[in-house]
Every structure is written in structure tokens, then in C-alpha cells.
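Bumping with the actual sequence this time:
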Amino acid sequence: MANTQPPPAKDKLQEEEERLQDAFDHINELHLQLRQLRTALPRIVAPLSAKSAKNASPQAVHAAVMKAAQDTSNQITDLRNAFTSDKTVAIFREAAESRKKEPKGIRPWLACEDPNWAQVKKGRQPADPATESTRAAAAVSSTTGNNS
């Protein structure tokens, strides 16, 4: 006979941590989309470069520029939709409320604290508490100047 009992309920702290991690992953994805737009103009004008345009017909160059412009426009639309989604608005609202409650309690995040910050994480690995606390302590001491 199979065990039909529901799995044990997670404690509130673990649920909160998972919810915050999901929010962080969503904001990180938005940030990566925004960073990809940094190359928008170079991609649009790349077909006009001397090497590309030298052997191509004007129609082919025009078509390549228009395709690059359309692709960039689609990226901007996707980013705008993601930034104005209900999930993003709720995350930013929660962050604003948290800053009102504890304006000095939020330590700024530094990219050097997580060398893999630009990689999209599809599946989460459970964090090792010992590693996390050691890394957090090192980050705090590096930002405060304490090297103990």
C-alpha cells in the first residue's frame, strides 16, 4: 500500500527564503535582459561596417539593418513587459516597504560577492549554511575594512 500522507509542511522561514530567492532570480533575469541591451546600437549598425557592407548590395545591407533594429525593438518590448509585470511591481513594492521599515538595515550588494551573478540559474541547489555564512562574513569584513 502506498503512503498517501502529504509531505511535511515547510517552516515559515524556509518558505520566506524560497520566495525571496525567486524574487531575486526574477530581478536578476531583468538585469541580464537590460545588460543585453547595451549592445543594441552596435548590433544595429554592424551591417553598415566597411567589411560587411563592402561586398553586399544596398538592399541586403538595408535588410540586415532593419532585421537588427526589429530584433532590438522586440528585446525592448520584452524588457518593458517584464518590468511592468505584476510580479515585478509586487517585488519592487515589497522592497520599498522594507526600506521604509528599516532604511539603514539593508547592506548594498556588490557584484564581487557572487562571481557567478551573471549566470541564469534554472535549478536551485540547496545552500550550504557553513559556506554561506563564511562568504557573508568575508563580504562584510571586506566592505567594512576589517581583515580579521
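The C-alpha cells above came from a reply further down the thread. Residues 20-104 form one domain.
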